[in-house]
Specification:
315 residues; 9 strands; two-stranded parallel ribbon; 12 helices; 41% helix; globular
Length: 315
């Protein structure tokens, strides 16, 4: 099933996608503008009403797609599987049905072997109301993702939504072939409030927005090496980088895993004693660290490419 009639009326034409904000768009709008016009076919669409069986127990509202859209379409005429989380429904959090839909899509990609997958992350992690089912879903998704990659499938994550990419979503993102992030995107296993609750405000002040963004935001993740590409907030920019990464990322195997492990070990050796993101930027040779947060995407990418050699050149 294609995008709903209600949302179709609010979706700009593809020619205007350079002006459309990824951050402000809904999951369905992102899918519609990311893919070739009219090419998206939704699996388990709204008419099937696959909703969470757990939320009603807590008198919480359900949603007809349980906060995630999955299906198949084309991007630049090439086939692609796509999953898009809706951060405006329960913060895009994973539950039983939500997770099962993404697991099924990845297994379909595994069996197809050659069709890449785009995951449009927008999640705060696992739903507390479905804690056990949600945690199990994360494990199943990670296994399905690795199995898909072992079968030759490229899995690219795109991060720039309201909820960021936290909790189990951060773990899943770490399993992807490559990630692209905007300044609005945030990536972390533990969110600011979670860290403060468990470790105290002295460890991490969740009200310090500058601290949150320079620690978990897209620019820092790109400089740290936690994302392969940084883009501005336009939907068209995400589409272009998705096309680039699908073509640029290598296959998956022991050599790739060993290289990744070596990269992580080197990162720990270089930055393990740094107390703040700014310390990491200085260690990477960034001369004017105070200018980083306000840099335009093009200027920042020039800086990032000099500070850290990209694995998959996105210039």
């Amino acid at each position: 099933m294609n995008i709903s009639e209600r949302e179709t009326a609010t979706v700009p034409h593809r020619a205007n996608s350079k002006k459309v904000s990824w951050y402000e768009a809904s999951a369905r709008q992102r899918v519609q503008l990311l893919l070739d016009a009219g090419s998206f076919h939704e699996f388990i669409g709204p008419e099937q009403r696959e909703e969470s069986p757990h939320l009603q127990v807590f008198d919480l509202p359900t949603q007809f797609d349980d906060g995630i859209i999955i299906g198949r379409g084309r991007i630049a005429r090439a086939p692609v599987f796509v999953a898009a989380q809706e951060g405006r429904f329960m913060g895009g959090a994973f539950g039983e049905v939500h997770g099962a839909k993404l697991t099924g899509l990845l297994r379909a990609a595994r069996d197809t072997k050659s069709v890449p997958v785009l995951i449009l992350f927008d999640t705060g992690g696992v739903r507390l109301q479905e804690a056990n089912a949600g945690e199990l879903a994360i494990a199943e998704i990670m296994r399905a993702l690795i199995e898909a990659r072992m079968a030759g499938v490229k899995v690219v994550g795109l991060i720039g939504g309201r909820a960021g990419c936290y909790g189990g979503g951060g773990l899943i993102a770490g399993c992807c072939s490559a990630l692209a992030v905007s300044e609005q995107g945030r990536i972390s296993v533990s969110g600011p409030e979670v860290i403060e609750t468990n470790r105290g405000v002295e460890e991490f002040d969740s009200r310090d927005r500058a601290l949150v963004w320079r620690t978990m935001g897209g620019k820092h993740r790109r400089l740290l090496g936690g994302a392969e590409a940084f883009v501005d907030d336009a939907v068209e920019s995400f589409r272009n980088i998705a096309l680039h990464l699908i073509g640029a990322v290598p296959g998956f195997g022991p050599d790739v895993l060993k290289a990744e492990q070596a990269r992580l070990e080197q990162r720990l050796q270089r930055f393990g004693l740094c107390a703040d993101a700014v310390d990491i930027w200085k260690a990477e040779g960034v001369a004017d660290t105070e200018a980083v947060p306000a840099m335009a995407a093009a200027d920042f990418n020039d800086l990032a490419n000099k500070a850290q050699e990209p694995r998959y050149d996105a210039r």
